[in-house]
Fold this sequence. Notes:
The structure holds 2 protein chains of 2 kinds.
Chain A (H helix, E strand, L loop, with lengths): L15 H17 L14 E2 L10 E5 L5 E5 L2 H14 L6 H9 L10 H5 L22 H12 L5 H7 E5 L5 H13 L4 E8 L7 H12 L1
Parallel strand pairs in A: 1-5, 2-4, 4-5
Antiparallel strand pairs in A: 2-3
Helix pairs in contact in A: 2-3, 2-5, 5-7
Chain B lengths: L30 H20 L2 E7 L16 E6 L4 E6 L7 H4 L1 E4 L3 H11 L6 E6 L5 H13 L7 E3 L4 H14 L3
Parallel strand pairs in B: 2-5, 5-6
Antiparallel strand pairs in B: 2-3, 3-4
Amino acid sequence: MGRAKLPRKSTNIDMTAMCDVAFLLLSFFILATKQKPPEAIAVVAPTSVSSKAAPEKSILITLTKEGKCFLLLGDETKKQEVLEDINTTKGLGLSPQEITKLTKLGFIGMPLGQIKSILALDPFPSADKLAGIPIQDSANNEMVDWIRSITNAYAGGDQKELEEKMLIKGDNLAKYPAFKNIKFALKKNNIFKFRIVTNSETVPPGSELYLKNREILEKK
Amino acid sequence: MAEMDTSSGGGHKKGPGVKKSKKMSTRVDLTPMVDLGFLLITFFVFTTTMSKPTAMNMNEPKDDPDQQLKVKQSGAMTILLGRDDQVYYYMGQLTAEDASQQFKSTNFKDIRQVILDKKKATPIGDLMYIIKSDKEATFKNAIDILDEMAISDVPPGHYAEVDMSETEEKLISMTEQANGIK
């Protein structure tokens, strides 16, 4: 029996084009990703359904799981002012060079009385070796002084602007009293609105908020 | 002058007995490279979207003794946060006689339904959730309960954080002992 011969076609596909696309996309994503600054203080933030993005250039109060408190001033232009203000109001006796050194640090996390001696250390201790800003009780809450200097530096500006920048980031395992003391420090300086840094989480289906969001979507 | 024959076969010689050099294909199989490319893309796509932090708004009331909020007993629900992710709650006001009956313990999973039931059963004007956290409660608990308020769409101003009273502390430690929570 004679069989009709089918022309054999190669199953090979030219992959060059696909490879080009893949690497083009890859390079795009690598370049578009903003490099996250290396976090000196490790904190696992809780989740919330809030969908607002956290602002940049913020004043960030970080609370670690051991209950240590750190202050990160994100706005370079105001950093100097804040430090000079606390230097004069609390009589720390820091020289201009020491203040410049302090502005170059990523975070502030030591009692006011120890700033001078810790700045002299070389190499500078890492975050886990520092004691943090004392916030233990309302009588000895140095965060109050820091926030006061911050409000002084931002005085004349928009109060709302400051409120938008004021962030608290806490570790899941941090104890509640530490958080309460930070809130106390903010309230003492007439800051009643601030924000909590969280990781986003999806709204549980069927909940009130879920239904409300869907209603708004349907109206559009 | 001496000449070296560097060509190993091939060349121009043609004829019987001379092997023809095989022409190698310059094509390379790019499939694994494409695989790798897409794998890396997926990795970058996932890591970029996941590390985006969000911010939750907080409004603290002014500590003004003249402006103490009057809360209707019928519309009030007090939520207490204890150690080990435990949640306790009671409706209205605790009375000395049957405090242990009013006082109920639950967890973060079930509190949502309780909050929702209370919201549906109460006219919105009277509704008030009072949140109190124990010393042993964590930051996560405090944020989670505020998040529950957002999830159940409780309007702002209808929930507030208040300090815990001594009787409540006692009730919590009693319940913890009974339930064996350390």
